[in-house]
Amino acid sequence: MPIVTISRGTLSGGEALANCLKEKLGIPAIAEEVIKEAATLYGISEAEISRQLKEGPKVWERLLGEKRRIYLIALQSAMAEHATKGDFIYHGVAGHFLLQGVPNVLKVRLVAPLNQRIKSVMERKKLSEGAAREYIEKIDEERKQWTKFFYQVDWADPSLYDMVINLENLSLDTACGMILYTLNQPEFKETEEKRRAIANFALACQVKAKVALNERTRGIELEVEAEDGKVRIQGKLYTTVGIFATGLRQSEAEVAAIAKSIPGVREVEVKLRELSVPVE
Fold first, then answer.
1. Three-state SS for 251?
2. 97-101, 129-133, 159-163, 209-213: least confident range
C-alpha cells in the first residue's frame, strides 16, 4: 500500500477525502501533525514553521530565503521518517514536493468549483461572499508563490500529479473510490526494493537536516544521497573574501563529522565547492 499525498486549494475537500481514505484503508491521515514532529525532532519553533509554510515569500525572502529553506528541510526529514514507519495519507502543504523521488507515493490533485469553495468559506469563516472570494484568492496566491519560490513550478501544473480529480461533477465518495482502485494496481505494489529506497531517502534527509540546522554548517547548500549506510554529500559553500572565511576543508570535515554521528551512517564522502562572495 503506498503513501497518498493530496494537494488542493483552500476548502476544496482535501481533509474530507483524506478521512474517507483513512476509514477505508485503516491508515493515518496527517497534515499539521508533521509540523509538530519536525519541531520536536529538530528543536525549532512549531509556530514559526507553520507561519513560514503558510505565508507567501516576502520581497526580502526572495533574496535571502535561508530560514524558510531550513524549515522545509526539517519538514521533509519528518515526512521521510514518517514514511519509514508505514503508509499514511498526507493532506497538508507540499507533500508531493517533500516526498519527491520517493517510490510508492500516489500524488493526487483535488480541484473544486470556486462557487463551492466560496460557500464553504462563508459557512466556516462567517464571511460575506466577497470576503470569502478574497480570502480564497489570497491563500491560493500565497501557495502559488510559495511553490514557485522554492521549487520553480506552478503548483496547479497537472504533470506534477498522478491523478487530478475535479469535484464539479464527482462526489467525494466517487473520488475516494477512484483512488482506492488506483492503489490496488501493480504500479503501487510494495516491494523490498521500494522499502529500501524509502529508508535511504529518510537517512539522506536526516543528514541534510542535521547539517542545515547546525550552527557551524548552516548556510551550505547540500545535495545528499544515501545507499545502505553510505552517504555522499555535495554542496556549495559561500564564503566571504577576507579574514572571516572559514575554509573549504574545515567545512567539509565539519559536515562529515555531523553525518557520521547519525545512526545508520557507515561511510561518508563530502565534496563541497567554494564560491566567494565579495564584501564591500
1. helix
2. 97-101
Q: Which residues pair with 227 in a beta bridge?
A: 230
CATH architecture under which domain 3-188 falls: 3-Layer(aba) Sandwich (3.40)
**Domain 214-277 coded CATH 2.40.128:** no
Contact call for residues 124 and 23 (beta carbons, < 8 A): no
Report strand pairing: 221-227 vs 230-240: antiparallel
Number of H helices, E strands in the chain: 11, 8
Backbone angles phi, psi at 2, to 5 degrees: -85, 175
Residues 251-263: tens digit of each pLDDT = 999 999 999 999 9
DSSP single-letter state for residue 241: S
Cell digits of residue 126 = 462567517
* 275: helix, strand or coil: strand
Q: How far apart are CA 95 and CA 108, in angstroms?
A: 10
CB 31 within 8 A of CB 158: no
